[in-house]
Design a protein that fits this description.
By secondary structure, the protein is an alpha+beta fold. Helices cover 35% and strands 26% of the residues. The chain is built from 5 helices and 9 strands; from the N terminus they run E-H-H-E-E-E-E-E-E-H-E-E-H-H. Strand 8 (106-108) and strand 9 (114-118) form a beta hairpin.
């Protein structure tokens, strides 16, 4: 199991039952975010792709924000009440805002995790709210991605132009 995945990979692995609208909206997070997971295959935390560090209120150390935790259970997407927190990661304030704004019923998942269902009626709010606080990626990051994409395209073209003599 990969511990760090893209939103696209998350949808590929766990989102087969998501509506097209939900898939499209989740993909809006793809450039800015990366998803991490610990032991649970179906539970991911949303972090900035560049792992930007911020000062913590409790101590003087810099920590990375988690902008939410998504859980997929029986093909249904949920937003968790709490995001992962540890010595290196703290929950972004937006997590509580999103969770309390989701008006549907609370579901208690395994290990006592409270979560609310995300569907076509509230996915826009969830994604737009995360995008409102999750920083844009830096120009240097965009340059790196562009260079990687260019090399990948060149390699793909050279492979398609080569002849096989088997």
């Amino acid at each position: 199991m990969k511990k760090t995945i893209s939103v696209k990979q998350f949808i590929s692995e766990l989102g087969e039952d998501f509506s097209e609208h939900m898939k499209e909206r989740l993909l809006d997070l793809n450039l800015r975010s990366v998803l991490t997971r610990k032991e649970d295959y179906n539970k991911v935390d949303i972090k900035h792709v560049e792992h930007t560090m911020y000062g913590s209120n409790e101590d003087k150390e810099q920590k990375e924000y988690s902008y939410g935790q998504l859980i997929v259970d029986d093909g249904v997407l949920y937003f968790s009440e709490k995001a992962m927190e540890n010595d290196y990661v703290m929950q972004a304030p937006v997590v509580s805002t999103i969770y309390s704004s989701l008006g549907n019923e609370t579901t208690t998942m395994d290990e006592g995790v409270n979560a609310k269902k995300v569907d076509d009626t509230n996915i826009d709010y969830v994604v737009d709210t995360i995008l409102g606080v999750c920083p844009e990626v830096s120009q240097s990051y965009l340059d790196i991605v562009k260079e990687m994409t260019s090399r990948s395209d060149i390699k793909a073209k050279s492979n398609s132009n080569s002849k096989s003599y088997i």
